[in-house]
Amino acid sequence: MSVKLETGRLDALRRLAAERFGDLHAGEDNVLKHSVLGENGIQRKLPNREPVSAEFLRWLITDKDAAASLDPRGLRVSNAEIPADLDLESSTIPFPLTFAYCSFARALNLKSAHVRTIDLNESDIAGSLCLANLVADGAVLLRSLHAGSLTDMRQTQIGGSLECTGSHFHVSSAKNPEEPEYAFWGDGVRVSGRAVFDRVQAVGQIRLSGAQIGGGLDFVGAKLAARGGDLSSSERDLVLLIDAATVALDVNLRDNFSSSGRISMIDAVVGRDLVCVNATLTATGQQEIALQADWARIKGNVYLGAGFVSSGEISLYGTQIEGKLDCPGNIMRIMRSKTTTIYALGTKIAGDVLLGDSNGKNSFRSDGTLFFSDAVIGGSMSLYGTVLNSNDAVLLAQRVKITGDLVLTGKLSAAGPIYLTNARVGGDMDISDATLGSVDCQGIHVEGDLKWEGSRNSPCADLRLEAAVVGRLYDKHITWPKKGHLHLNGFTYRDLILDDPQPCDPEDGDCENVKGKSPAAVRICWLRQQPDYELSRPQPWLQLSKWLQEHGDDAGSKAVIYAFRQEQVRGSGWIVEMGSAAMDELGEDPMKIAYPALFLWAVGSLVFWRAGRMKRMAPKEAAAYADFSKSGTAPSHCVRYNPFMYALENVLPVVKLGQDDAWGPDPDRKFGNTYTWLAAVRWALILLGWLIALVLTAAISLRIKS
Fold it and tell me: What is this structure's pTM?
């Protein structure tokens, strides 16, 4: 198109404008010149703005004759001040609209309009900006826009990108306090490209509920804050709402991003990653939630990366993460009443959960509870090097299902208890090099190994393994919990491996020195770390006995059973305890019953040998006794007296040697009390002999049962 033709069109348009509005202001003439000739005067910001009538602009945009004279690049307004409302509602605008460095004293209304593109670069709008139900064939550019009131983009359809980089969105200070605190209202907006809110500053809520974004959603370096005032309503603490939105690519809240209020992504779908790196989230209001992504679906990873600080809860209730949850170098702080920092009840995570940095450069810190109960984790879960400061539970992971490993190591520090009740771990569980409170693993099922090799100085309050099932248990004697703080009833395992047994601290009276002891003796010491009231429960002892027997240590297996019996009668009195100990000894070696029998036989032999020398033993037959009383010698037909056989026959009641039937203490009174003493010795031997026989029978029975 020749310059002469363009100039002619400009002159014709000036005449049309003059006929309608009279003399034009300089700013209005500049609009005609830039829009017809396509000059680049909009490329620079001028110190002063020229007034341009809103009525003039509406005529230029909507009048067919006027619009026909414009350059294909469309309406180009720069450095203009527009004092009244510019109402273009329901207009069909077949060319781009560009307002650069302009100031709108009132509102700009493009509701239900159809336009090629819109560019409001570095413009100010004191009133509302209404783009609701707008259809834009290309991009909508709101870069460095200053909006003093609501920006309404509900149900807007954008064929390109939505770019709001560097813009300021504010709730009107004059609005009704009962109305929602919306600064940017984009519910149901459809954007074919990216939606960019980089370096945006917003006071009030940015809403993108039900939005459909064909690219990514970026809030890089953005600063979002609630308006303030009464935050008792669940709406008033919201700063960013993306509920039920669909984002094809990443959602980026990073690089000095900050929010003072709640970010809600309930039921949102994110096509790739949710990235919160070098970001600060601060909860306000009664809910004290900083980021709420309940029931959202993240098709990539969730990065709460280095430099991420959250003062408030991160809620991932029922969220599906098809990648990993990666949280290295975070600081999670609780608010006033909230005690949870990450709430991931029932969350499904296809990859790993990494709460910490395996290279040790960035530690994960949490002042509240990490709640992963009923979560399903397709990879491993690692709390490598984390610092958990809550005095309440620091990790709640009851019934969590982990396909890979569970790692609680790397100088992990936990001030409060860890609950892994009824968890399922498909790989190994490593608890080592850690300073712990108590660890509750009741009912846990670990397919691989349980490695319990924490710090020597770890003040572990309790280790609860009741009803737990593991493959192999690796532990160190120096990391056993203190006496009374180990709970093992129902604990089953395939193998036990004690790694480098070392002597106990001599100042520690709660355990024994296991250096050089047999595996059975070491593990008996281990079982005795249980509380006294649990030592009489049979399962831990029987499990250990079975394990020793399976490994060919029959003697050790028996020793465990005998130690258990000692624990069963402990506190029942010294007589019962001694009797039980004796029974255990005999059960192990019944021949030991010979020792007391030999002792009784020796004593009886000595007594009755002396009695025979002193003529105090006499035949029982009457005629023989009469001859013995006269001559002091038994008749020849009488059984010859043998004190050794006599004592043996009385000690062994089932043995008959003829001595006891033929001989007995002399009842003659002239010998004083000798008869009484000898008779007492005889009956003592008989009774003790029967007792020995009964004990031997019981011991053999116990051995058969064992």
Answer: 0.81
